[in-house]
Amino acid sequence: MIVLTRRAAIAVAALGLLTTSPLVTDGRADSALADGKAEGTLTVNGKTTKVAFAYARSVPGFIDANTKDILVIVSDVPLDANALADDSVRAGLAKDGKLHAFEITIDASGMPVSTAWRHDGFNDPVPSGLSSDDVFTKKTFDGKLVEGSYKSATDEEFFGNTYAFDVAFRAIITH
């Protein structure tokens, strides 16, 4: 059995060694995604991008900093440790057209409390927050693994931008 320190696990993940395997299913329609994988689409102003990567990490609570939330990032490209740790790096990658991602902050009860987009398809500003009409389905949320799906109820509009999301994800939570 190989045991990695947190730093080593992050380095391995950053190299893509934990997230580059194809989707693993048992052939059934309800098969789960492999760890560190996402599927689905992000659509901004008519341009649709497929997502393939999922990351999850424990962060200070969005509403109560004394609690821990889980930040889930679904993206079209693999992210290194620097991008995973720094919002501004992800924002810069998105601005340069190198990243198309949707981020979901999930509170300790397993409910979304905020979302953020990292996508160059928006004509500023970029939306954040969430709608209670959107459909979140929690499959696994046990402090070690987060798995679920999130879908916008309708195409949304924000300052002349239209957008929608329909993603499923499964990721090991880093602490």
Labels describing this entry:
mainly beta; 41% strand; 3 helices; 175 residues; single chain; ten-stranded mixed beta sheet; globular
Please write out the topology.
Elements: H1 6-14, E1 37-44, E2 47-50, E3 53-60, E4 68-75, H2 81-85, H3 87-95, E5 101-106, E6 112-118, E7 135-141, E8 145-151, E9 156-158, E10 161-174
Parallel strand pairs: 3-10
Antiparallel strand pairs: 1-2, 1-10, 3-4, 4-5, 5-6, 7-8, 8-10, 9-10
Counted by DSSP, the helix tally is 3
Overall geometric form: globular
The total number of structural domains is 1
Q: Count the strands?
A: 10
Structural classification: mainly beta
Low-confidence stretches: 1-31
Fold and architecture overview:
This protein has 175 residues and is mostly beta strands. The chain has one domain. 13% of the residues lie in helices and 41% in strands. The chain has helices spanning 6-14, 81-85, 87-95; strands spanning 37-44, 47-50, 53-60, 68-75, 101-106, 112-118, 135-141, 145-151, 156-158, 161-174. Strands 1, 2, 3, 4, 5, 6, 7, 8, 9 and 10 form a ten-stranded mixed β-sheet that branches. The longest helix is centred in the first third of the chain and has 9 residues, at 6-14. It is globular, with a radius of gyration of 16 Å. Residues 1-31 have low confidence and may be disordered.
